Amino acid sequence: MDLLPDVWRQDYWLPPGVTWKDMDHLADSDRPQPLDLLIALPLALGFVALRFVFERFFAPPMGRCLGVRNRLQVTAAPSPKLESFYTKRSRQPTQSEIVSLMSLCGKTQRQIETWFRCRRNQDRPCQTKKFGEAAWRFFFYITAFVAGLACLVDRPWFWDRSECWRKYPVQPMERAHYWYYMLELGFYGSLLLRISVDIKRKDFKEQVIHHLATIFLLSFSYCANYIRIGTLVMLLHDSSDILLESAKMFNYGTGWRKTCDTLFVVFAGVFLVTRLVIFPSKIIHTTLVLSMEVFEPFVGYYLFNTLLMVLQALHIFWAGLILRMVYKFLKGKLEKDERSDEESEAEEEEEDKGGEENVDRDGDYCWERSKDTLNSKLSMLTNSCVLNNLTNHRASVADRMRKAQ
């Protein structure tokens, strides 16, 4: 029972020399209250509902305008035994498991491997789903960025970072900044609620850590009245996310390669500058160094900066992925997002080949088109060899006739 009061000890949340009574100088509407965070839950559920409407009614026509089309997929032949193994055991059976499945189902190794490859491709997200997710995030980020910029551009701390700590923590909170915080908190809460059904990417674990760290950072900074520096952190992050999601949208479309490449290059530059230069040199420097000119370190100071360091570590991780993409782009081999869904590149290639495969009446796959192509090439090669031999033979006969004369 005594644990809850200990959580709100003033030496945890307030700098030395400041008490909760000092915070009473602020009106209730100007003072961040921990109970205010409860509004984030209905906002998160509201975002989930709004996203459903957006992806159902608005994203499809946008996708058609950009030429988003789903790939043709070959459906795996019905096989209850293989389906049971796929859903309950593994999506990628080992060699020994394939051998046991061969005897169990009466199929060849190639048929088993082909069935599992085709079944995995069926579970891969379609282009329209990817586009819908990217479009929703783009819609939110651009709205949040414009709204955040509008409510910050005329504030003194937007231009002078030392203003973030003037009279801290007794700083009145404006309603615009309150809603800016709550909407961002609700949005990241909705991402966490939907993460199990969203497209699973290679950095799934890092995404979970990012969402949790962001929610905890927003919640803590709100309660500790780090509103001013918190709004700058949110605005800085939204600026590059807009470009990332817009590049994805054009990437999923048809005929927009140059636009996608241009947006990607701009995004890479903005991300590297904002996350690896401005964020550590301006934001973290402000919270670590400039804040010490106003107050001495306390528990909240260490916790807030630790969370910022976690974000910075994630920035470095994602910067590595982006630099890999830049390297491929410069080599002319940029084909997919490094954060693409979990199917390997080999399986992507197999899926493309799968579109050229035919299915016989028993559901087994054959490669008649590949055989026809191979036979055609062999026929051309044979004809070429026969013609060359005939030409050489005629030349040698003519040679002998000239010598005889």
What features would you describe in this structure?
- By secondary structure, this protein is mostly helical.
- The protein folds into 2 domains: 19-58 and 128-331, no CATH class; 80-123, Arc Repressor Mutant, subunit A.
- 69% of the residues lie in helices and 1% in strands.
- It is built from 16 helices and 2 strands.
- The protein has helices at residues 3-7, 10-13, 20-23, 40-65, 80-88, 95-105, 109-123, 127-152, 156-159, 175-194, 204-223, 227-252, 257-288, 299-330, 345-354, 368-404, and strands spanning 358-359, 365-366.
- A two-stranded antiparallel ribbon has the order 1-2.
- A hairpin with a 5-residue loop joins strand 1 (358-359) and strand 2.
- The longest helix has 37 residues, at 368-404.
- The N and C termini lie far apart (122 Å).
- The relative contact order is 0.11.
- One of its GO terms (cellular component) is nucleus.
- Pathway: Sphingolipid metabolism; Lipid metabolism; sphingolipid metabolism.
- One of its GO terms (molecular function) is sphingosine N-acyltransferase activity.
- This is Ceramide synthase 4.
- InterPro entries: HD, Homeodomain-like_sf, Lag1/Lac1-like, TLC-dom.
DSSP helix fraction: 55-70%
Spatial strand order of the main sheet: 1-2
**Major sheet characteristics:** 2 strands, antiparallel
Low-confidence stretches: 341-391
Query: What is the N-to-C order of secondary-structure elements (H for helix, E for strand)?
Result: HHHHHHHHHHHHHHHEEH
Strand content: under 5%
Radius of gyration equals: 31 Å
Domain module tally: 2
What is the count of helical runs? 16
Mean pLDDT: 81
Helix/strand/pairing category: mainly alpha
Terminal CA distance: 122 Å
| Beta strand count | 2
Instruction: Choose one word for the global shape.
Output: elongated
